[in-house]
Amino acid sequence: MPPTSNLKRSQAAGIAGRSLQGLIAALLPPEEGGPDPATVVGVLERFLSYQPPPIRLAGHLGALSINAASLLFNGRTLASASPDQREKVMARLTSTVVGSGVMDGIKALVLMAAGSESASTEILAAAAATETARPDAVIDVTPAGSWPSTTHTDVVVIGSGAGGAVAAMELAEAGLSVVIVEEGRRWTVDEFRTGHPVDRYASLYRDGGSTVALGLPPVVLPIGRAVGGTTVVNSGTCFRTPRSVLESWRDKAGLTMADPAFFNPFLDRVWSLLQVAPVPLDIMGNNGKLAIEGARKLGWAAAPLDRNAPGCDGCCQCAIGCPRNAKFGVHLNALPRASAAGARIVSEARVTKILLEGGRAAGVEAVRSDGSLIKIMAPRVVVAAGTTETPPLLRRSRLNWHPMVGKNLALHPAVGVAGRMEEPVVAWHGVLQSSSVSELHAEQGIMLEATSTPPGMGSMVLPGVGRRLVEELAGADHLATLGGMVADESSGRVVGANRTTILYNLSKRDGLRLLETIRAGGKVLMAAGATEVLTGIPGYSRVRSEVELDDAIAHARPRDLHVAAFHPVGTVAAGSDPERYPLDPSGALRGMSGVWVADGSVLPTCPAVNPQVSIMGLSLAIAGEILKKA
Ligand SMILES: Cc1cc2nc3c(=O)[nH]c(=O)nc-3n(C[C@H](O)[C@H](O)[C@H](O)COP(=O)(O)OP(=O)(O)OC[C@H]3O[C@@H](n4cnc5c(N)ncnc54)[C@H](O)[C@@H]3O)c2cc1C
Ligand code: SF4
Question: How many CB atoms lie within 10 A of CB 210?
């Protein structure tokens, strides 16, 4: 490269770095007790480097445009402006709808970098403080670079997450030869004990954790990518599929395997495979206890959650990989059992298409990171790439003739509320997701769960910028935090073939129920003793009484809420009506022999509870159907 290009590049990098550093100083002023911008900028740039190019670009352009606004208002960039001048720019920008939207996105990036850096010592110390609950499991994993170009097997399973792992286990234990192809890599517990939180977060999730369902409001939708899929990063909460949901799948979708009498034994098997048990009170932490206490004062039903985490010590790091190997993701149970029965896993290989021959499945083609191709030939293909990746894969394979492929997406959307307590709560000392308030579940499909984030990584829920944000951060240890989810209508879809795009229109009914979720969460927190509740509602972010809470809800618009979701399902649903369901009731893809789907896509509707157990139960049942034809 000519020296002048190198020079221009490094000048551009210098400008980008300075504008990010100025922005960090404006959001978290060091003069007010904020972190050193020079340290945070390094972590932020590292975090951005994991993001797909559009997010990286948006981060840099956002910083440049806020700096340009500072030049306009103050005649100085943020880096050289005085603290008062920076504060004024931020106040002017956040007073406009567009400015506050841009600021929310930028703030999330900056707080992720600042929070994970400031908490990294605590996170790593907590990880090192206790022995692992169990060693890494013995799994037959071969990185794609060392896997032969062409192999033959009885079954190829695409994806090693909740659905793929248990299907592979069932098929391998029945005597079929199985190869699982996984795009992510294998992680060891040592990496979870020693890795910086920002690197763990950004590499364990698809697209550096920046997946968003587009719509009003946009919905943040993180999705795991690793050997073990999203179970490596999930919170370990376990619910059996509610009986009413099973009956509606049976009666409305014609999904015969959902009949409770037939399906319950599969749920029993998953329960025992995952070693599910209620969260013990001695590791629950204050956050979960306060939710139970608040609910009981209201006379509402609440209890410790059931989890698959035997040996958990409540270090609150589930979302960035459990440093104790306590959370019992499928990499610690189903995959080792599949391996013991002869199944092999190819990691770091992305399946590009399903191969077809004479009107039936013939195997898959996958690409290694260097661009070279692998072929795994098999007469049976089980697609378990997850709800958002399975439809694009079917499209790439020209198996999307059914008009409902990619449609019918439900997200189980969630909002967060926080309550400020007189005494420190330190929500991150204890189990990350620990207790539930189920009072409104049966009638309204609303479930509240006491949920924290790993230390330092939840600060994006805090209101304000500048001095006020620094004050909020200083008081974050007094906040009790609740997440609330709504069993939604299937109002989204997944489009695209090579690059996934997720679209989601929050329905009016679900938007109103999200507001009810905030109301219910606020009431629980106030009953538990909160002196104020952070609602996440613009203009009403802080309320101090039930009257103020009701007023905030009355003025809120669902499209302005900060919504996240963790439970996408339904995009290649199974059912009896060939017009409505791409899969038949055995999980087989209609119109093609030898292709089954066994992941979150299969569920006809939102299961109304955290879905991993439902997905695994259906996957076991579908594997049983495959075996009937083997
Ligand atoms: C932060 C978080 C917390 C959660 N907490 C809970 C919880 O407490 N309880 C609960 O029940 N649920 C929880 N969930 C949801 C739950 O983990 C998922 O619903 C479940 O894991 C989905 O299973 P799946 O098999 O559909 O997909 P995944 O588990 O996501 O597995 C799909 C796998 O396929 C791989 N893949 C995708 N495309 C390809 C390709 N082309 N080639 C090869 N491989 C591919 C992916 O890399 C991935 O590893 C949580 C989710 C998140 C994000
Ligand atoms: S809280 Fe989560 S990360 Fe920590 S030990 Fe328990 S399961 Fe593992």
Answer: 24
Q: Verify whether ligand 2 is closer than 6 Å to residue 318 (CB atom).
A: yes
For residue 101, the tally of other CB atoms under 10 A from its CB is: 14
Q: Determine which one of 60, 331, 412, 567 is catalytic.
A: 567
- Is pLDDT above 60 for 1? no
Q: How far is the CA of 190 from the centre of ligand 2 (A)?
A: 14
- When pLDDT is cut at 50, 70 and 90, the band that residue 7 belongs to is low
| Alpha carbon distance 586, 574 (integer Å) | 8
Distance CA 330, CA 164 (A): 9
Q: Which of 30-44, 85-99, 223-237, 367-381 has the lowest mean pLDDT?
A: 85-99
Question: Using CA of residue 65, residue 68, residue 72, residue 73, what is the dihedral sign?
Answer: positive
- List, in sequence order, the alpha helices (H) in 53-146: 53-74, 83-94, 97-129
d(C-alpha 266, C-alpha 271), whole Å? 9
Q: What is the pTM of this model?
A: 0.96
CA of 230 to the centre of ligand 1 (A): 3
Residue 463 has a pLDDT of: 85
Decide if 555 is catalytic.
no
Residue located via tokens 């605590």: 122
Residue 333 CA, ligand 2 centroid: distance in Å: 16
Our answer on whether the CB atom of 316 is closer than 6 Å to any ligand 2 atom is yes
- Write down the mean pLDDT value for the chain: 94
User: For residue 442, what is the enclosing H or E element?
Assistant: helix 441-444
Write down all domains in the chain, each with its CATH number in brackets.
Answer: 11-129 (no CATH), 141-187+226-273+322-405+571-628 (3.50.50.60), 414-564 (no CATH)
Name the DSSP class of 390.
Answer: H
**Mean pLDDT score, 182-189:** 98
